UniProtKB/TrEMBL annotation:
Listed Pfam families: Fur_reg_FbpB
Name of the molecule in the record: FbpB family small basic protein
Length: 43
């Protein structure tokens, strides 16, 4: 098997950044759902 090419630091930073942005969007969705559940129970 061929050894994968070493990535440059800039590439790693970009990948990390995009992953964090995706995760943040996912976390916001989860938080919204939890908040809606809490509000629904409070009423």
């Amino acid at each position: 098997m061929r050894k994968p090419r070493k990535r440059s630091f800039a590439e790693l930073v970009l990948e990390n950044k995009s992953q964090l942005l995706k995760d943040r969007v996912a976390m916001e969705k989860i938080e919204q759902r939890l908040e809606e559940k809490r509000l629904g129970k409070a009423e």
